[in-house]
């Protein structure tokens, strides 16, 4: 996380999801989260605000990262496959 302007915090569910997926996929997802934390405009086409709240989703292939960006903290709430991320 060197060079990140935002602190990244993972919920227990998000950390558990990263531990249970293939290592290469987890590395790719962590890299995208860190890239977004360092520069919000770098992934503008892959980030959208979710309806009815202040949560966003980051698309990483077939995976979705649901998060909140509150000032200097990027709180990762959930990481799930595309079809299960919005339940």
Question: How do the helices and strands line up, and which of them pair or pack?
Answer:
Blueprint: E1 7-10, H1 12-20, H2 23-38, E2 47-49, E3 56-60, E4 63-70, E5 73-81
Parallel strand pairs: 1-5
Antiparallel strand pairs: 2-3, 3-4, 4-5
Could you please describe the fold and organization of this structure?
- By secondary structure, this protein is an alpha+beta fold.
- It is 29% helix and 33% strand.
- The protein contains two helices and five strands.
- A five-stranded mixed β-sheet has the order 1-5-4-3-2.
- The termini are far apart.
- The mean pLDDT is 89.
Overall mean pLDDT stands at 89
Strand content: 25-35%
Shape: globular
Number of strands: 5
What low-confidence regions span 5 or more consecutive residues with pLDDT below 50?
A: none
Give the helix proportion (percent range): 25-40%
Number of helices: 2
Quick description:
The protein is an alpha+beta fold and 87 residues long. 29% of the residues lie in helices and 33% in strands.
Short descriptors:
87 residues, alpha+beta, five-stranded mixed beta sheet, single chain
């Amino acid at each position: 996380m060197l060079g990140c302007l935002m602190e990244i915090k993972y919920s227990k569910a998000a950390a558990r999801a990263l531990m249970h997926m293939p290592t290469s996929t987890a590395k790719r997802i962590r890299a995208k989260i860190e890239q977004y934390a360092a520069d919000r405009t770098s992934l503008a086409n892959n980030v959208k605000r979710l309806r009815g709240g202040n949560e966003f989703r980051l698309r990483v292939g077939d995976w979705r990262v649901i998060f909140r960006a509150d000032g200097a903290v990027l709180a990762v709430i959930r990481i799930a496959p595309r079809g299960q991320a919005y339940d």
